[in-house]
Request: fold
Amino acid sequence: MVLAMDALDFTLPEELEAREPPEARGLARDEVRLLVSYRADDRLVHAHFDALPQFLEPGDLVVVNVSATLPAALRAVREDGTAIALHLSTQVDGPIWIVEGRETRLTAGEHVSLPAGGSATFLEPHRGSWRLWRAQLDLPEPGLAYLHRHGKPIAYPYVKGEWPLEMYQTVYAAAPGSAEMPSAGRAFSTRVIDAFRDRSVGLASIVLHTGVSSPEKDEPPYEEWYDVPQSAVDAVSEARENGSRVIAVGTTVVRALESSASDSGGLIASRGWTDVVITPSRGVRFVDGLLTGFHEPKASHLAMLEAIAGRGHLSKAYASALENGYLWHEFGDLHLIL
Reply:
């Protein structure tokens, strides 16, 4: 199978969309499939996620995103009585959020009612988007408490049924703030993490709060909040000094690390808003490998994967994933690029 990687495009059959969590398919979360691809020689290995530690070497460093998923989907009612789904993406300043009204067009000044007497007023499109808006939320209690009382996890039409928040949470989630799960880390379990320790593989953490996914697959990522602490910088530096690899768990980790560079190009501790977009021409500086899910046709994240793996290797890996029935989306299988 040959993929049209010039356009970052391919056909994703419906049967390869993971429509429910692996637990509903009779699997533990760490029993999803894992495609391991080696850039040096294009070798592909088919495995399961619980074998991940076997593909790492003592001294390697795995960097995870400990952002926790919010129940960021709310039911909203327009002034004409029509109900819409309102997805809260990013809190930017107090009551001001970036939001998405699903499958509907909004207008400046429009007011919608939210559960328990809350409301949202749409102020202006965000960065010229028709889909994302800046909105002022008037809530009867603090935002996180309100969402946990009245919100649900964001889910898309390919997901069958409703699933509780814990199905959209990684085992190491610690910092609430993501509209959607940083899903590359979903398959981690305590036994996999314990196996890292037994194999002398290091573990470091950063935070990047993800916003809502884009239904326009060619829409670039927008700004997100990140925090790269000194502990992560020290761990990355030590691995590099020892000649070991730095493996990012998810594109969010790559984006955070690449956003935390000094003027001279070295990794430093920092926090703030990032609008970094990683492309093959830009390249990456701080990671040697990537654990990630399988991304949809034309998804902007494919440009980041190409920056790490190269166009030819990525094409071969995705062709193999399609031919061998790997599953896509947040409840699907994973791809380790080494």
Summary: Residues 73-150 form a domain with the Thrombin, subunit H fold (CATH 2.40.10.240).
